[in-house]
Specification:
alpha/beta; 8 helices
C-alpha cells in the first residue's frame, strides 16, 4: 500500500451521540463518468485487504488517492478514493451500508458472500449471533458515553460563547480570509466533508500527517471551550465558498452536523485548524489565534470553573467510550477468526482481479 506519509487519510464514519454517523453517501458523485465499487461481505472476508491492494495498484498507475480508515479499527481500510473523484472503492456493509441509488450504472456491487463456506458458518451460528450482539451492545454503550460527553461539551461552549465578543471573532476571521483568498471567482466553491479524527479503540485518533500533506500554511485556533472556533470556522467556510474555493470541511465527531473543527483549501495549500486539550495538534503553525484574545475577562472568570468542570467530566466520559470501543474491537477480532476460517480467499482474489481489469 502507499506510504501513509504521502497520502491524505480520513474517516468517513464515527460513533456519535445519536448513533453511528456516516458520510459514505458523499464518497462519490453517481452522476459523474466514473465508477464506485461497493464491497459486500462479513468481517474477516478480505474487504480491507482488497482495498489495500487496490490502493497499491492505483499508486502504481500514477493515480493519487485518499484513504479512509475505520473508526472501530484504525488499522483497517474502509475506502479508497482517487483524488480526481473518478473512482471509489468502499466497504459498503454495516454500519456504513451503501446501497446503489441507480443500479446498473456507475455503482457496482461486489459480493464476497459467495466466497463463504456456508456449512462452516452454520456450525458457528450461535457463536456468531452472540458475538455480533455483544459487539453492537458495546458500541451502543460507547455512544451513550459520547452522548453524555456531548452535553457537557455543549454546555462548555455555551458558557464560552457568553464570555466572548462574537463580532471580534468574525472580524478577525474575515480579515484573514480577505488577505488569503484574493479575488472572488464567479462560481461558488464546492465542499467535501470528512472527519480528520474519531473516537477509536486507541483513544481520540487524529490523522496528523494529512494537514502536512495538504497545507504549507496553517492557522491554528487554540480554543478549549469550543465557542470561538465555531464562529471562526463558520466564517472561514462562508467566505471560502463565496470566493469560489473548493474546500474540505472536517467536523467534530461528537458534533458531526454542526461543529466545524478544520477547513482545508488544497488549491491555496492553506488550512485552518482547531487545537484543544482533547486533541493536541503536532504541527508548527503559520499563526496561532488564542481564543482568550476575544474574551470578556470578567465574564470568563465567572464561568471558568464551570467550563473546566464540564471539560474534565466530558474527558472522563470519552475515556469510557474508548474502553467500550476497545472491548468491541476484541469481540470483532473473534468474529473475524470465524469468517476467515470459512472464506475461500482464492475466490476473493478473483474478485480483486476482476475489479482491477475494469478500471
Amino acid at each position: 500500500m502507499q506510504d501513509l506519509l504521502s497520502v491524505p487519510c480520513w474517516f468517513l464514519g464515527t460513533n456519535a451521540p445519536k448513533g453511528y454517523y456516516s458520510r459514505f453517501d458523499k464518497i462519490f458523485c453517481v452522476k459523474s463518468d466514473g465508477k464506485v465499487f461497493l464491497l459486500k461481505g462479513g468481517p474477516g472476508t478480505g474487504k480491507s485487504t482488497m482495498l489495500k491492494k487496490i490502493a497499491s495498484v492505483l499508486a502504481e498507475k500514477g493515480l493519487s488517492t485518499e484513504l479512509v480508515f475505520c473508526s472501530a479499527d484504525t488499522d483497517s481500510l474502509d475506502a479508497v478514493i482517487t483524488s480526481d473523484g473518478k473512482f471509489a472503492f468502499a466497504d459498503a456493509t454495516l454500519p456504513h451500508a451503501y446501497e446503489p441509488k441507480y443500479p446498473g450504472t456507475s455503482e457496482i456491487p461486489v459480493s464476497l458472500w459467495d466466497c463463504w463456506d456456508e456449512k462452516k458458518l452454520w456450525k458457528e451460528k450461535e457463536e456468531i449471533i452472540r458475538l455480533f450482539d455483544e459487539n453492537r451492545r458495546l458500541h451502543e454503550e460507547a455512544r451513550r458515553y459520547i452522548s453524555a460527553a456531548s452535553g457537557l461539551l455543549d454546555q462548555a461552549a455555551k458558557l464560552g460563547l457568553d464570555s466572548v465578543f462574537p463580532e471580534k471573532v468574525e472580524k478577525t476571521a474575515k480579515r484573514i480570509c480577505m488577505r488569503e483568498f484574493g479575488r472572488k471567482n464567479s462560481q461558488r466553491g464546492t465542499e467535501k466533508q470528512r472527519f480528520l479524527s474519531a473516537i477509536t479503540d486507541k483513544g481520540i485518533f487524529f490523522h496528523k500527517n494529512t494537514p502536512k500533506i495538504l497545507c504549507d500554511k496553517i492557522y491554528l485556533i487554540d480554543d478549549d471551550a469550543g465557542a470561538v472556533s465555531r464562529i471562526f470556522m463558520s466564517t472561514v467556510r462562508k467566505y471560502a465558498l463565496e470566493h469560489g474555493l473548493d474546500i474540505i470541511t472536517c467536523t467534530c465527531p461528537i458534533f458531526p452536523q454542526e461543529k466545524i473543527e478544520h477547513i482545508f483549501i488544497p488549491a491555496l495549500r492553506l488550512g485552518f485548524m482547531t487545537d484543544n486539550r482533547r486533541h493536541k495538534i503536532d504541527i508548527v503553525p503559520y499563526r496561532i489565534i488564542h481564543a482568550r484574545r476575544f474574551a470578556d475577562f470578567k465574564k470568563y472568570s465567572a464561568n471558568k470553573i464551570k467550563i473546566r468542570f464540564a471539560l474534565r467530566s466530558a474527558k472522563n466520559l470519552i475515556d469510557q467510550a474508548v474502553n467500550c470501543t476497545k472491548e468491541a474491537k476484541l469481540v470483532h477480532n473473534e468474529l473475524e477468526k470465524i469468517y476467515i476460517n470459512a472464506t475461500d480467499f482464492k475466490k476473493v482474489d478473483e474478485k480483486f482481479e476482476k475489479i482491477i481489469k475494469s478500471i
